Structures are given as structure tokens and as C-alpha cells.
Amino acid sequence: MAKKGPQDPNARRPKPATENEDATPEVAETTDPTQHSKLDPGLRMIAMTAATEMAELDSESAFSVAASTAAPPEVSLFVQFTGDIAEIEKAGFQTRTVAGDVACGDIAVSQLAALEAIPSITRMEVSRVMNNELDLAAADVRVAPVHTGPPGHRGAGVIVGIIDSGIDYRHQSFRAPDGRSRILAIWDQGLGRVGTETSPAGFGYGVEYQQAQINTALAAANPLAIVRHQDSAGAQFHGTHVTGIAAGDGSVAGQGRPAFTFVGIAPEADIIVVANNRGRAAGERGLGDSADTLDAVRYIFNFAQSLGRPVVINQSQGDNVGPHDGTSLLERGLDNLLGGAGRAFVKSAGNEGARNRHASGTLTASGVQTVQFNVPGGVPQVTIDLWYRGADRIGVAVTRPGGVPTANVNPPASTTINLPGGNQLFIDSSLNDPGNADNRIFITISRGTSAQVQSGNWSLTLRGNTISFGQWDAWIQRNSGSQFLAPFVNAARTISVPGTAREIITVGSYITRGAGVGAISSFSSLGPTRDGRPAPTLSAPGQTLFSANVTTAADQYQGMMGTSMAAPMVTGAVALMLQRRPTMTAEQIRNCLISSARSDANTGATPNNAWGAGKLDVQAAFACAAPEIRRTLLPPCTIRTLTPSCTLRTVAPPCNIQTLVASQCLPRTVTPPCVIQSVTAPCPIQTLVAPCNIQTVAPACGFQTQNPACFPTQTLSAGCGVLVPNPTVVVNPGTNPAVLTARSGQSEATETWQAATANADWTADWSTTAPESGPADPPDEDGIMSFWYGNPGY
Predict the structure, then answer these.
(1) Do β-strands 538-543 and 413-418 pair in parallel, antiparallel, or remain unpaired?
(2) How far is C-alpha 776 from the chain's CA centre?
(3) Is pTM, for the whole model, over 0.70?
(4) What is the mean pLDDT of residues 419-439?
(5) Less Cβ crowding at N or C end of the chain, within 10 Å?
């Protein structure tokens, strides 16, 4: 079908209809969305909005639109494409980040039609404002043994990336013992450049401050005159609090407790902070949008890669709009960036479990369902996103409080309706979404010429025109405070976007302080994803946690709760895992977290849609992250198996070990069931506990490789050199394999190499000392562990 779409957005705006109080109104002239099938409903709405009304979208919508009198309106968006990005840029697209086949950037609204006409673009999605996952915050995650060792692991060498509202870089918890900052860089995306300040290389907005500048500021009488970044008071210093949980060292006193009480999970990790704070929409406390998020992820990954360091990113922000099946372009872009070793991304599950912002139901053919939702006072815009299966066809009508229904809107259609009182209704009903082949009904109620969206109970009337499956799911964007009403409200499938991506780790919250200790937090979002995948990944303490506060506050720490607080618990744990094995992939990390999670009477059988795999266990996850052991010997010590004449036999206790005849390596006879297990030269001696596989080396090097859990003493003859990696000999991770270390100061021809005991020193199993039915404190010498991040009562 030929594309039509003049450059003037007014030309694409249908004539609006007006609701009739006494009769069902006529629906406005409708734009067929198949003419703009690459645009998501948000972009179609923007394209249909008059230039004179664009400023309202700028200040009040959940979409990233920039409109001013000084420049033509612009929109931030994602594109999925094939081929070369240069062709897309020729159409006016200003690329910011490319993540595989997904790019984000900006373009003039008037150029959307030209961009859509490019054959290499498969779909386009508007960038949306992010929201903090915050309510007010906990922990029995068994981190103490990992911190203390021996050897102790506290995150040294690993980078923790934080995408949030910012950070108070002056806080002592983010400094090294010598006073210098552990923050490698801060990118304040919302700050305008002043003087010699610069944006990060490859990004044309915001201000970047690197570690040297931060240290200079810390040494100055007025740090903020040098590094102007500050955390957002409107966000209650959310980013500072989150960073403290993941990587604060607790080196300043607070809450009536001494220094080193409020210690984060990875207190020696370095930190990169991106203040995702360019949001313009009312009520969003200055947070940025989803395109800024993809930029932030690429910036952190690139920074870590330039240093050759592993990195884990935390984002305690989310969004309710989208398919909730991992196919949004932000999620696809994140998955594309997470394929390599030494990278992980942790996301809060969301606080939508008890907010009544998800509804679902099952329609029958010709059936009708009326779905009510309440809009509070003072709201400028309400957005509802409804998804259903591609084989079905569902019509929709909207009824305002005290009004009559609009005419039924059947797919495909995109229409604008003016309602009595001044409110404006936009309905986009589209088929065959390019990301998942499902259908979507996207509804936005704007204040229009009124001061606000009419408060009270509104309703959607859904009609099953053609039904094969019938199931539908709808979400209300959280910025409006609106809620669905019974009977269709449903707490399941409330994991916030991008938490439904396939490669990231999503974290729910449970209680470790106050009433209901050990239970899941009522606000914690529930799985599964809309396409049926298990979610969240696991759960961690999030109610209530004490962490770093802004330094100008009366106390250096404050308590908060939410999945925002649970996510950085896991982020810190991942940093410890990456310190132990820097090459772990996101999939390996996620699998270790899942396999090591704890279940108890509160979680019930796991996995489930509230707890995921269960409760975070840092100690067990760290053990799972044991490095792969890859061993061989330098020449002339060639590894080989025994020749047929030197067959090895085993002896079952209490049978004595027999030897082989040296000349032919033939076994001497023993009485069954005792079997020979040792040989004399030139057949090297082997001593191994079954069922470990046995290998020998050529004389005179008596080294053997082994399967996991085998810890025999090894003997190497003189001249055998050192151990070097050999990718063909692998010991599987996760079972505490032996690590061979050389004894120093030996002059004998034969040196003894044996399994190091360091790993065994810290691996006491807490399950043998702590009951599974409830929280238990690890050993605590000063009695303040209940206030410590790694333990109950935090």
C-alpha cells in the first residue's frame, strides 16, 4: 500500500467528533493505522497532534516530545532496522545509540512520514518517561561470609553502574579509604553545559564528570562549584539511596549507629552513575525516558570496556506501557547489548502488585465486558495500553463519568474524539504488531481544553467481534494515579518494562523489617510475563532498607522500601560474582542466582510468580560463580592416558594397595573384591576417590586432571614447569573445585602441589545452622547486624 503523509502534521489530523449527551456520538474521521503500520500508537498520536497543541504533549504526556517556539517539535524514538544506519540518518534521524538492530535518537515530528517510508526500517516506537520503582525498605542474604572470606570479596575491580535520579557524590560512603572518590564518572543527562564542561563522547547532551574532576571537587571548599551534579530532591535522593545499597561502604555514622554499620553489598566496587533526569512530563519528578536509558546502558558498557573491567548495571525505574513480553524496542536493544562476557543488567520488578493498574479478562465471541477504572482529580492525562492475540478482533468504546459511550471503534482505526467538558480522547486500535504479531488498543485521555481529565469512574466497553483465544491484558500508565476496578483488576503480569526483557535479571521485594518479616512485599510486582515466561527472576530484601542520604540532611542515612531497594541488593551480589569470575555472561549469572536462591515457608514451592526462584542467597550465588578450572602442563610434560599394558585398578577399603611389576606394568594378583590401584615406575602413581575420571602424564610428571568435587593431593616431578590454561580440559563451575598452588621454599627434585584450602574456609553451609522457616542473623560481634545491608532487619 502506498504511504501517504504530508510533512505538515496538521494535515494528518482527522476532524474531531463531539460526544452527544443524548445519543451515541458519531466517531471522528478515522486514520487507518495500516497506512502508518511502522509507527506505534504513541507516534501515531504525536503525528496526528496539531502543532499548536504540541506543547501540551511536551509538558503533560508520558512521551518524550520537545516542543518550543524556538524550534520545530521533535520526538525521541526507537527504530528497528536492517542494513546501514546512514540511510536512516539522511531522513533527519539523529542517532544516539545503536544496539544491534535497534537504534534510538531524535527526529522532527514533521519528518516522521519520511522516516517511516525508508524500507530498511521495520518498526518505530516512541520513547516514554521512566518512573522510579519507590515506596518507602531489608536483608538476610548471607553476604558476610563472602566479605570476610578468606579470601574476602567486596567487589574490588568490578564496576557497578547506576541509572537513576543521580547521586550525592560527596557522601563518604562512595569514597576510598584515602578520601578519593570511587565514582569513575557521572553523566548528568539533564544538565546543560557551562564553560569548559562537555557531554560524553558520542552523545550530544548532558554533562560528563570523570573521576579526576570529582576528586578535585571533593578537595575544594565548594564542591558543587566544580562538579555541579546533584541528586534530585524531588525523587527523594533515590539514586543515592540505591547506590548505597549496591556499593556504599558505610564509612560514616548515622541513625545513631557507628561508622561501617550500613555497608553495601559490594563496598569496594567502582561506580558509574547516569542521572536519567531529562523528563519533562508533569508528576514524573524529572526522570528521563526510555531512549535516554538505552544511551545510559551503552555509555556504561563502553566505559567499562575501555578499562577492561566487568560491569553490572542497576536500574530501579520502569514503565507500564508496552507488550510486557520482552518485544518492546527498549528491551530488544538491552538484550542486544547483553550478549558478551562480564556484563549484567539488574532491574526492579516494579511496585505494581497492589496498585490495581493491570486488568485482564477473557472475551467470548459476541461477548461484551465493561471494564471500569477510576481517575483521581488533578490529572492532565491518562494512558491505557491493551493487548490481545493476533487471531482475535476486539472493538472498544469509552464512557466518561456520567456520560454515554462513544461509538464502537473496531480495528484497524485511529481516531480523536472531543468530549463534552473539553477532554480529548485518542483511540488507536491496530493489528499485527511488528514486534509480536499481536493486536493492540491504545487509549489516551487528555485534558484538552479543560483544566484536568474529568475525575470519577470511566469505563471501557470491550466487544468480541472475532474470538479464537479471547484473553486480553490492559495496563494504566502510572503517572496518572488511575486504577482499574473489580472484577477485572489483576495483580499478575505486573512486572514493569523493561523488566520483561529476556536477558536481564528482575528482582521482587520481601520484608525483613517490621510486620510480616520474611513475607513478600504487598507492592512487589508479580509475574509471569504476558507471553508466559517465569518472572521475577528472584526476590531480595526491599522493605525497609536504610541507605545513604544526601549529605546536607540531618542524618546520613534514610529508610526506604520498594523493589527499587531490592534490585541493588542483587546488583551488589552480581558484582561479587564478577569479582570472582569476571568472564561470566548474563545468562550464567542469572542461572547461578536462580539455582542458588533459597526457599522457605514464606516462599512456598519455587519458582512461582511472586518470588521467582526464591530469596537471594549471596553466599550460595558466589559459590556458584567459582571459576572454571582449565589446566595443562608445559612441555615436556605431555598429558596422556595409561597405555593398555598399564591398566589401573582400584582397591576397596580395607584392602591394601598393591603394586604393578615395573618391567611390564602387569598387576599382581589380589583376592576379589580388592583390585589393584597403584603402579610402579614407569607407570606414574594415581590416587583418586571414585567416581573421578583418571588421567596421567608422561614420566616423570605425575599430574592428573579431575572432575568437580575431587580434591586429591597431586605430585609433579622436577622440570614440569607451571600450570597454564588449556581450553580442552575443563572442570565445571559451581562445585568448589580444587585450585593447585605451589609451595614456596622447596628445593627437592619433586615438589608437592596440593588443593588450596582457601575456598573451603568460607563455605560453611548456613542451612545447617539457620532455620529455613524464618530469617536468621549470621554471627555478629557488635550486635548491630540488624541494621546492616547483608543481614536481617536492614
Answers:
(1) unpaired
(2) 28
(3) yes
(4) 95
(5) N
